[in-house]
Specification:
The protein has six helices and no strands. By secondary structure, the protein is mostly helical. The longest helix has 31 residues.
């Protein structure tokens, strides 16, 4: 299976928490690409990678529910603004240090989300509804799935509201 098909499969089968974890992975990958491009002095690739990382962080920030999430969501929003600024600093200054700092912050956040995801998986596996065979369902675009996810607070389980 190629990388694109694997990612599409992960997106299609992920819940809201899983989608956030995928976004963190993508952000970390693009920051790593930016560091590699900076080292190689490839200005266009560095700028493209940093812009992509900024877009991902903006998407994470936009997904926060500040009212339901309370202080945690507000703190995450502030952190996302800081991460965004550090990414822009790295692009303007053409230095690695802001990218290394962003990598550390995103890694910490990604680990927290993976922890949330692993805590939820046993519960979801026990209560998962039976699914029709894959060949009897149309295959939606991964981006359509992102917009159709049921909010965490709509489920009957205790959920994080970010």
């Amino acid at each position: 299976m190629n990388k694109g098909a694997y990612l599409e499969s992960r997106i299609l089968s992920a819940d809201a928490v899983g989608l956030i974890a995928i976004l963190y992975e993508a952000a970390l990958d693009t920051v790593a690409d930016a560091i590699e491009s900076l080292t190689a002095k490839d200005i266009a690739a560095r700028s493209k990678a940093i812009c992509k990382a900024v877009d991902i962080v903006d998407h994470l920030n936009a997904s926060l529910d500040l009212q339901a999430g309370g202080e945690i969501s507000r703190n995450l929003a502030s952190l996302y603004v800081y991460i965004r600024q550090r990414l822009l600093d790295a692009n303007l200054s053409q230095t690695k240090e802001p990218l290394i700092e962003v990598t550390g912050l995103l890694t910490t956040l990604a680990e927290a989300w993976c922890g949330i995801q692993s805590e939820r998986e046993p519960v979801e596996a026990a209560t998962a509804p039976e699914v029709a065979p894959a060949d009897s369902r149309p295959t939606p675009s991964p981006w359509m799935v992102l917009t159709q996810q049921v909010p965490l607070q709509a489920s009957g389980q205790r959920a994080w509201s970010f």
